[in-house]
Amino acid sequence: MRQMALLETLRQFVDWDLRRKPITTAGNLTLLIGVLPWLALIATDGRRGSPTLSAPMMAAIAFDLIWFSYVGWRGWLLFQQAAARADRLYDCKGKYALPSEYADTESATKARRRRRKGS
Description:
Order of helices and strands: HHHH
Number of helices: 4
Shape: elongated
Oligomer: single chain
């Protein structure tokens, strides 16, 4: 149960951070979390002049791959939700604010669904 609560908290944090406006590199906390292992390596001199991969460096790479994959996946889902919401808003209200010849248009999502069904 504790793991599920931790994962839910993590998901809520990532979603909150990705939804903030404006999204900037300096203000993006998810980017900062991905960079933290590298900052720790630099602070502790993890490289020590060696060109080989050390265990801490491999752990930092693994953490970054997992973290940025998760954040990218959540960002893609949030993007799809926002696009669907904007399309619904256009279908309900936006197209009627346009000139009359455009009032019978449909959103891109609705047109794509219609084409997939073949009607």
